[in-house]
Specification:
The chain is mostly helical. It has a domain of about 90 residues. The chain has four helices and no strands. It is rod-shaped.
Length: about 130
């Protein structure tokens, strides 16, 4: 049995023993809207961080293509030129895939920002008195 499974089991047992897993506090019911917005804010931040990483990869791919073009231009005719062209084609393919990933991440970020805006502009839920 691995150590991580033992720790996970011990943590779950501690939560159940303390009653945290079975009870819901009254304060959490009031904070559901702010919690939901906080979750959406966390998702936006996560998407922004992912976009920064993907953008950095895309910039490296752009530099790789530019370098490969220079190598092709400087290569002698024959096998050396053919190998340089293959490397350029590989670099372009990698750049293309990264560009698609970047575009997808931009769309994910836009969608996350849209959900956050909807959450922030949503009307506050009103409390209704329940007859006792």
């Amino acid at each position: 049995m691995s150590v991580s499974i033992r720790f996970a089991g011990a943590a779950a047992a501690a939560v159940v023993a303390l009653g945290g897993g079975l009870s819901v506090s009254a304060a959490s019911a009031d904070d559901t809207s702010t919690t939901a917005c906080a979750q959406q804010q966390a998702k936006v931040e996560k998407a922004e961080a992912a976009l920064v990483r993907v953008t950095a990869v895309f910039e490296r791919q752009q530099a790789r293509v530019a370098k490969a073009k220079k190598v092709v231009a400087a290569a002698e005719a024959g096998r050396e030129k053919a190998e340089a062209r293959r490397l350029l084609a590989d670099a372009k393919q990698d750049r293309k895939e990264t560009k698609v990933t970047k575009r997808a991440q931009q769309q994910r970020l836009a969608k996350a920002q849209e959900r956050l805006t909807e959450c922030e502009t949503a009307p506050e839920p009103t409390e209704t008195a329940t007859p006792a």
